[in-house]
Design goal:
Oligomer: heterodimer
Largest interface: A-B, 47 and 43 residues
Mean pLDDT of chain B: 86
Strand content of chain B: 15-25%
Distance between the termini of chain A: 19 Å
Radius of gyration of chain A: 21 Å
Distance between the termini of chain B: 140 Å
């Protein structure tokens, strides 16, 4: 440990708002705005060169999300730590509420309508679970993490929302929650062999899970395994998406010129398949450029996590960053036919309010960790001294 | 302790974060690799697939070539078929729009129901045909009211039209929808409106008349809606086919043949009412929906005659009329004939679907006698002066061969035998020359051979020979069969087209002319090889055939040429369909008209005119028409005179032909 660090640690000063704003990683914010702007352009193209119905609304949402992000970043991380369990409990309750509402109402309802946003508790769960787990592991020493009994509460914390989300049924989100939580476990220092055991158990549960899946979910996986078997049926999305991607070539067909997208061969081009549209219009160069922007944001996430002085901050920053990565990877791999179509949006670009809010909330946390990187937090979530 | 723990956590976190980063970087690498594979390695394949998605090739059906007569009158052409369509997505209420349309033009209730059903089944932008074959006046009314008819539009297609109906059907043939086994992989055949030639010229020259389809690329979206039409290749219309027949002569010959020896009177004539009152129900049914009926000399309603008339230019071989009666209307085939109508055509005893001119095979009867004479003359086994005595029959072994004239003709020479059509004379000739010489001569004159006229279904006829009988029946040839063959009976069969060709070759100066129906596009005359017959022999035949019509004892003297009329030559023929038994002969039943129609003799006549410088040959076959003299000769004479009057495609003016002389006969 460097001397300077120790000095600061000994005198944790309360930062003013101005200091906090100055401490914000503005380059990262710039990258986020850049990614969102690519999204506006693509939504403009998806509407055949019109800001309505998508680009305009998406911009407003991003504006709201942007304010949310900066606000969250200004709030002291200790506040988030203290309220982590409460937030988790609240979101779990909401999840349970939509579940009950869905049972009473008509079929699979996953959201609560809030006007501009449709609040989807399963999305919020992605962030609040990361927070809750971070708080839990923050309170454990390396040795305590080694005690299997200590892993039971966090497993329960993961299990409840995953089961609820699976029942919605939303396989993609459930898997993302599971993988995001898994990453937190991994980072918290759960022993590798335990980790492998858990993965083994999960794989063993796959055949059982298959039984519980809805027919359409089973069909999606079967279609993924052989998309050409039914080109006009369930395989249509993947096949058309691959055609759009492939025909884009190295440099693309040009902005607003993607024939697959504009002639509606490409399904869901404004939401899940928007990456395909970008790759069709801007080619491999454009697609790699966008992935590069994400990689930079994720790299900032890693750097912020590693530089944070609290285990809570580290786990939150990297938990959220990994969630962002999962969004990106699952969506892009899905539209390229590498994994089944599970309905995960491209973060900050796909049209839709909830995912945008979740991501901006999460990124606000990451920025907050960065702003408050030197704040030391005691094991119970209070100041150390 | 806390510090140590914190340091542990941080150390482990950093290590694991780096592992996680490595894993994530690896996955991003996988994404990049996949992008490279799709967008660079497989780019060409996907580009092609994308273009196939984006563009549909729309075929533009070519305009089918017309069929024209000698003077350019269309016998088959393409009619604009105006139809009204409705597009569901362009109208608020389809039923209301249809009702509005129904107040402007007639829309049958049945069509309204069909349209309402169709619009639900098809995509909203797909037009549904409401009514077809609208007149220009109806179209104008719809067009004027267009503002009140949202979603209604007028489209024009083409349908094949045969303006002369059944008159020329055996030449033109007809077109109909492409059937499964006619698909060749040519996509134009799969267009729903495409029609293909099924018979006649339409079939034989189908490819020439079809032309080549144009293509146009049409940009479509995922639902198949047309976004944009790109200019393309217009295609090439089919070629017109010009026939050698003259539709006016064709009409005259058809009417003259079907009338036979009856009189054609309008239905509203008082005599028609009297006749219809006592007509049989079958006859009444046949006369229904006719403007005219046929009355025989006893004032009874009779059926139209069936048979064939072929008129041919003796020098060029061009057919000026090619009649096969009855015919049928080719127009309904375009939209599909009902099973009932088709069944009726098939079961009609007068076989309207058969082109009798080329596929009807009849015993030529006495029209065969000229070539028997020629065979004898050429072999020098008989001369113009060779005489035989005809007692009315000839004995050969224990068989008696009768002459048509019971009392016999007495002593006749060759011209006399032809003039009076003495059978015994030709029995004697046949005994001298044998079947082989007869068969060889028949083939030189075009019988028993395919003439390869431009129509499908042509038959060969039959000229029997020793080899033929041995091969098909496994029996040797009997001498008696030569005698029967010499009067054109027995095994001998010929088509009307062959008989006309034979006649043309007899009188055209010795050229082996071949009939043709389609004019050479360049108008080139064909050179035909000589038949190799002695001109003196041919002159003798011409003289004899003139005597048949103009001689005092000629079998066709009833139609002998009037003064100022061009002279006609020819030969009658009456071919037995059913052998008259000894019992019937004893009972005196030798006359055809006492027998049922099916059993009656065919009436034949082959002729030419003018005798001095022959230009046209004709053959007439009236199926079960009775006698060649009484039935076929008058028809042939009228047709020949009409042919000379019209002189279709004629170049050499004939001073002897009067401008017009409406003749009345029998």
């Amino acid at each position: 440990m460097a001397v300077g660090t120790r000095f600061e640690a000994l005198n944790p000063p309360e930062m003013t708002l101005g200091q906090k704003l100055a401490a914000v990683n503005w380059l990262m914010v710039l990258l986020i705005v850049a990614i969102a702007s690519v999204g506006f352009a693509m939504l403009y193209s998806a509407a055949n060169g019109s800001v309505t119905p998508w680009a305009y609304r998406q911009a407003i949402r991003f504006g709201v999300g942007f304010v949310v992000m900066l606000t969250v970043a200004m709030v002291d991380v200790r506040f988030w730590m203290r309220s982590a369990y409460l937030m988790y409990a609240a979101v779990l309750l909401l999840l349970f509420a939509v579940e009950v509402m869905g049972e009473i109402g008509m079929g699979a309802q996953r959201w609560i309508d809030l006007g501009l946003f449709q609040l989807q508790p399963s999305e919020l769960m992605k962030i609040s679970l990361v927070l809750a787990l971070a708080r839990y592991f923050h309170g454990l020493t390396w040795d305590e993490v080694g005690n299997p009994l200590n892993l039971l509460p966090p497993l329960l914390m993961i299990g409840m929302p995953v089961v609820l989300v699976l029942r919605q049924p939303d396989l993609g989100t459930a898997l993302m929650i599971l993988m995001g939580a898994g990453a937190t476990f991994f980072l918290a220092g759960v022993r590798i062999w335990k980790f492998l055991t858990l993965i083994g158990i999960a794989l063993a549960a796959v055949p059982i899970g298959w039984q519980f899946m809805r027919t359409y979910q089973q069909q999606r996986i079967l279609t993924f395994l052989n998309p050409e078997s039914d080109p006009l049926g369930s395989g249509y999305h993947i096949t058309q998406s691959k055609i759009a991607l492939g025909s884009g070539g190295l440099f693309g067909k040009g902005f607003l010129e993607g024939s697959q997208s504009h002639l509606n061969f490409l399904p869901e081009k404004q939401t899940d398949f928007i990456f395909t549209m970008l790759a069709e219009e801007f080619g491999m160069v454009g697609a790699l450029g966008l992935i590069g922007l994400y990689v930079l944001v994720i790299a900032y996430g890693f750097a912020i996590a590693i530089r944070s002085r609290s285990q809570f901050g580290r786990l939150v920053a990297l938990g959220v960053t990994t969630t962002l990565f999962l969004y990106l990877f699952i969506n892009v791999a899905m539209v390229m036919g590498l994994i089944p179509v599970v309905g995960v949006p491209l973060p900050m670009i796909s049209y839709g309010g909830t995912a945008m809010l979740t991501i901006m909330l999460g990124l606000g946390m990451v920025l907050g960790v960065s702003v408050h990187r030197d704040v030391r937090i005691g094991r119970a979530g209070v100041d150390e001294d | 302790m806390l510090k140590a723990s914190e340091q542990d956590s941080q150390r482990i976190f950093t290590r694991r974060a780096l592992m996680l980063a490595a894993g994530q970087l690896g996955l991003v690498g996988a994404l990049a690799a996949r992008l490279y594979y799709l967008q660079v390695v497989e780019a060409d394949r996907y580009s092609l697939l994308s273009r196939n998605n984006q563009f549909n090739l729309e075929l533009l059906p070519p305009i089918r070539g017309r069929i024209l007569d000698l003077n350019g009158v269309p016998l088959a052409d393409n009619q604009d078929n105006f139809r009204v369509e409705i597009v569901r997505e362009q109208t608020v209420d389809v039923s209301a729009t249809l009702a509005a349309l129904g107040s402007i033009i007639e829309v049958p209730e049945w069509d309204v129901r069909r349209v309402l059903k169709d619009v639900k089944r098809k995509r909203a932008f797909v037009p549904v045909t409401v009514v077809e074959n609208l007149s220009r006046e109806e179209i104008a009314r719809v067009a004027v009211n267009a503002p009140y008819l949202p979603g209604v539009r007028i489209e024009v297609g083409r349908s094949r039209r045969y303006p002369f109906g059944e008159l020329a059907v055996h030449c033109t043939g007809y077109v109909a929808a492409v059937s499964e086994n006619e698909l060749t992989g040519d996509p134009v055949l799969e267009l729903p409106d495409f029609r293909i030639g099924k018979s006649g010229i339409e079939k034989v020259h189908d490819l020439e008349m079809r032309g080549t389809a144009g293509q146009r690329q049409v940009e479509v979206n995922a639902l198949g809606r047309i976004i944009r039409k790109l200019p393309g290749d217009e295609g090439e219309p089919g070629r017109d086919i010009r026939l050698s027949i003259d539709i006016n002569l064709q009409r005259f010959a058809t009417e003259r043949l079907t009338r036979g020896m009856a009189e054609r009177i309008p239905v509203d004539d008082p005599r028609a009412q009297v006749a219809l009152a006592k007509a049989s129900p079958a006859m009444l049914a046949a006369s229904e929906a006719q403007d005219t009926i046929l009355l025989d000399k006893y004032g009874e309603v009779v059926e139209a005659e069936s048979g064939s008339v072929v008129v041919m230019d003796v020098h060029s071989g061009e057919l000026r009329a090619l009649v096969s009666a009855p015919g049928y209307d080719p127009n309904p085939f375009n939209h599909g004939l009902s099973a009932k109508d088709w069944e009726e055509l098939l079961s009609n005893p007068r076989s309207p679907l058969t082109n009798k001119s080329i596929a009807g095979q009849y015993p030529p009867g006495s029209t065969f006698k000229m070539l028997v004479s020629l065979a004898a003359l050429e072999a020098d086994l008989a001369g113009p002066d060779t005489q035989f005595f005809c007692p009315g029959h000839l004995e050969l072994g224990d068989t008696r061969f009768h002459c048509w004239k019971r009392g016999g003709h007495g002593t006749v020479d060759m011209v006399g035998a032809l003039e009076q059509s003495c059978d015994v004379y030709f029995y004697e000739i046949a005994k001298r020359i044998g079947i082989d010489r007869i068969a060889a001569m028949a083939k030189r004159l075009g019988l028993g051979e395919m003439l390869d006229v431009d129509l499908p279904g042509e038959r060969r006829g039959l000229i029997p020979s020793r080899e033929w009988k041995q091969a098909t029946r496994g029996e040797p040839w009997h001498r008696g069969e030569t005698l029967v063959a010499a009067i054109g009976q027995g095994f001998v069969l010929a088509t009307p087209l062959q008989l006309a060709t034979m006649t043309a070759r007899l009188v055209n100066g010795g050229r082996a002319v071949v009939p043709r129906l389609v004019r050479d596009p360049d108008g080139n005359a064909r050179n035909f090889p000589p038949t190799g017959l002695d001109p003196r022999d041919l002159d003798l035949m011409r003289q004899a055939m003139s005597a048949v019509v103009n001689g005092a004892r000629g079998t066709a003297r009833a139609v002998r040429s009037r003064e100022n009329d061009p002279t006609i030559g020819g030969k009658t023929g009456t071919s037995q369909v059913k052998r008259i038994t000894m019992a019937q002969r004893a009972a005196g039943l030798t006359k055809s008209k006492d027998q049922p129609w099916r059993d009656r003799d065919h009436a034949l006549f082959v002729g030419f005119a003018p005798v001095e410088a022959p230009r046209y040959a004709v053959s007439v076959v009236v199926e079960h028409g009775g006698g060649g003299s009484s039935m076929a000769a008058p028809i042939a004479a009228d047709v020949l005179l009409e042919t000379l009057r019209i002189d279709p495609g004629g170049s050499a003016p004939l001073s002897a032909v009067p401008a017009a002389d409406p003749r009345r006969r029998g």
